[in-house]
Amino acid sequence: MTTGRGGAAGLPPPDGAGQPRGARPLLTVASLAVALAAADTYVVVLALTDMMAGAGLGIESLQKGTPIISGFLLGYIAVLPLIGRLADLVSRRKILLACLMVFVVGSLITGVAVELPVMIGGRFLQGLGGGGLVPATLAIVADLWPPGRRGMPLGVVGAVQELGSVLGPLLGAGILLVSDWRGIFWVNAILGLVFALGVWVIRPDAPAGAGDVGVRPVTPARSQVVTALAWLAALVAAVAGSLALIAPESLTSSVAYGEPFVPFGESSSRVWTPVGLVAIVALVLLVALTVRRWLPTLLLADVLGAIFVAIMLGSLVLTFSSADPAKEVLGPWGLWLLPLGALALIAFLIRQRTAANPLIQRGVVHGKVVPALVVSLLVGAAIVAIVVDVPLLARLTEGTSETAAAIVLVQFLVAVPVGAVLGGLLLKRLGPGVVAAPGLAVTAAALWGMSGWTRGALDEPGLSSVLLVLAGFGIGLAIAPVNDAALADSTHSTHGTVSSLVVVARMVGMVVGLALLTAVGLRRFQEEVAKLADPTDSEAMLDAAVVQVQTVFAGAALAALAAAVIAIWLGWHRVRHTSLS
Questions:
Q1: Coil, strand or helix: which one is 46?
Q2: What pLDDT digit, counting tens, does each position of 304-340 carry?
Q3: Alpha helices in 92-223 (DSSP H)
Q4: 8 Å CB contact between 515 and 323
Q5: Contact by Cβ (8 Å): 99, 84
């Protein structure tokens, strides 16, 4: 049904490109925010030792510093299903704003931290906010672009996400040239606030029903007194928390004003001080005063099921991200984290069957959503094999530095966003399966060629560069089709959930794929070592390590080939264009 010059009922006239006015500016801001969050995964790589020194740790305690990276990854992945579900219950813009503010708070906390637990907590909040941006942005694309015209915007989102990962270390290096490591997080906070302002100002003409669809609080509106108290509690928590973490020398060294900054007992923590305790009490009071505003929606989103999923995904992330992929499959915590994750999975499955409103609504995972999730899982395994083992192979050549190894990998990483944009463009004329399947087949062929690499293969930029570019380009081609097919087989009320599941599947594929491929590769390595006549022969040991890398590439090639076959089920016909409704 149409009315006047407009499109679907309840909609203003589109801007001529099939989406409401303001859609492109909002996508631009949201995509830049996604790129910033993606960059933050690796932005601290070059600054890690300086950050550890800022927390009072020496280079000999490098292992203790790994949670600075894994903490971000944990926050990024563990709550994705909950944020995806919340994006189906409230305005997607509100989710974007909330995630950006969490990201900003996490950046500020990390930037002033002088203790490792506080630093890790700040990074976790950064990951929490950054991860939530992805499903919310993909859901906005589904809201503001009709089926059949989502290819390009989905390709853009996928491209900037990959480009952010590429630029992360470069961004960190650039900031370190003019500032210390804390400058990285000041820049994050400033950019996060700028993007939040952009999301706040840009209000596209939304489709009918694209606003809040979740429950409203069942209680009457909060009184002005309670609202004022909540704002006061927030202000006190922010000011006291900032003072506790920054601990200005002019106050801490003052006889008159220094006592609130003296730690309790024998603690040396800036948080466990009188001023820190004030911040904690104010934060608890803020939660108590506002609980009726957000608790009903959280309960409708099935927060209990989300907790089970967070424990399950968190166990996977911490088990495998804490392992050295060149030496071990499981990290030091794996023996008790994996059983915990298994129990959480069982509890989640029971919850899915018994809850009136489960986290993943019944009937959401159906049709093309299923092959999209499987393809995303397998693509994650292929990506991580290249990201981890290409630099490893480069380092097996004597004299190759970490920087040189990273430069080799950039050839792959740059090709991914290029392929993602082209894949989005091709969806205007071709079906998702027609774009994704050949692209992944190219990746599989490139990985199979890489499985024949020997030491020194990366020193010659000819064939090795071609294979790396083809592998990245093929993966990029599949990004938009996977998202497009999944969103096409979901409704407006489930776009957030489906988008989060696609991202989670890819992240799980990366974590678990690395573990499985490394396990097989280590076994081959041990077999080669057992054959050596002289185990002390360093050259022979390096050749055995190359066999491990070759095995990982071969396994990744099989994963990419399987993804190519399954991608056929994404559909051979172009997604039909329909008006927004």
A1: coil
A2: 999 999 899 888 877 876 666 656 666 677 778 889 9
A3: 92-112, 116-144, 151-178, 182-201
A4: yes
A5: no
